[in-house]
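look at this one:
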Amino acid sequence: MCDGSSEAIYLENGSIVSPKGFYAAGMYSGVKKSRKDLAVLYCDTPAHAAAVYTLNQVQAAPLHVTKASLAQEHTLQAVVINSGNANACTGKQGEKDAYTMRQKTAEKFGIKDHYVAVASTGIIGLDMPMDKIVPHIDQLTIGKGQEHATHFEEAILTTDTFTKSTCFQTEINGEKVTMAGAAKGSGMIEPNMGTMLAFLTTDAVIAPDMLQLALKEVVDTTFNCITVDGDTSTNDMVLIMASEQAKHDTLTPEHPEWHRFVGLLQAVSEDLAKDIARDGEGATKLMEVEVSGAENKQAANQIAKTIVGSSLVKTAIYGTDPNWGRIICAIGYSGVKINPDTIDMKIGSIPLLQQSEPIAFSEEDATTYLENETIYIYVDMNMGEAKRKAWGCDLTYDYVRINASYRS
């Protein structure tokens, strides 16, 4: 659980439907062999919306449709999601199928077609089984109960081993404002968004352009700071809907409590990002790298992401091997101009380097520390004031097993 902003309070029993106006559902339609695979998120009023998408130049049909929907009014009332089939690299038929999903969802809820976003995740290059999806869209039964939220969370998963959701609350103009999120992601995760989908809901009052501004800022420090395997997928997005049903003044950067909203968004996004990293395919440990003392935030970010993305670092973490040489090596090839003589480094509370000089440490203590489920690595470049974090996971034998049989 992320602390986020000190003004954002974690709601232990909160879910994607906790903000005012939101409902959800998830069910089995037959796209996957047995697990739930079709979901919908619905708002009872038109909600301002914003999204950030994968940077892969090959983008799946649902992304094209969602972009088209948002381009009209930057407003949504529903998101329909299927898992098990990515509807990616499926040509003109795939585009038609994504628009059909949009149309059928709009008809079910009696809303405009372009008030619906579409998302898919699963195997690339297979035709969509529309004979299974279309009739089940009409059978989705939305609600605000915990079971509805849980079914939604389950239906968007692929190789994930657990559902991912979080909820925080703050006060703006003395009014309670809630934000929640649900996500999927386990493999093909690379900074700049890999195989992941994240859906955020809030009852905050905010214009679409300001929502987009805040989302882009926060995604850069959360979802874009995770990696599992270095692969960037074709389908992925972070999408946020604001029902505007809280009773505070409209949020802009000039609002005296704008920082509370951004802190709320940061807390929700960081929680989900860390869960995705923790659930890397075959992973047994979450790795958090904090780089400080960099010349600028971009440099700190690039160094941190290079460390968490290093296969040699990831395998050392899995094998509980305190081989800090792999970390310093990753720093050196990060592409950032550094001073190789001023680096401090710690694993947990154990100092390893000071001003790039090795410090004697107990390898037994370091090995014991690396048996923890969450591993913290601290690097101080001693070149400036910038600081950033990145998250990843260890690399295990199971990663190969899972991805060698992904289609089976």
Q: What stands out?
A: The first strand starts at residue 9 and ends at 10. The CA atoms of residues 350 and 362 lie 9 Å apart. The chain has two domains: 9-275, 286-404.
